[in-house]
């Protein structure tokens, strides 16, 4: 009999949160441990966004949430299987139906990716990232003022 166990490990490193998934595979005893950083394909991210919005959903609900042209049921089933294996999604069996729900919070997933972006493309400098973001995204004056308010509020908390 095979059982899969999933462990989430949050590590604090350089004031950034990194999430690792450890897959433990048991067949009467532990065979191996595989460590992997959280990562989803574009198709998986699209499906995960639907699940984050809905909190819980059956296969028919997920298919209805897709824009036209809708993917095949088998495609969504394959994505859900891969996401379950990666530890992003779980399900509750209700008779012959499965109700899927996210195991990873959207904020945790995207903060890991933003931190990786800052580290890999901006020399681990949030200032360089902020400079690039504000200059290259063509923000309006109102949007820049809103960003300034957010930063000011964060400064008050520190």
From TrEMBL:
Keyword Translocase among UniProt keywords: no
GO molecular function, one term: DNA binding
InterPro entries recorded: BlaI_family, WH-like_DNA-bd_sf, WH_DNA-bd_sf
Keywords noted in UniProt: DNA-binding, Transcription, Transcription regulation
GO biological process, one term: negative regulation of DNA-templated transcription
Ranges that cross the membrane: none
Gene3D superfamilies: Penicillinase repressor domain, Winged helix-like DNA-binding domain superfamily/Winged helix DNA-binding domain
Family: Belongs to the BlaI transcriptional regulatory family.
Name of this protein: Predicted transcriptional regulator
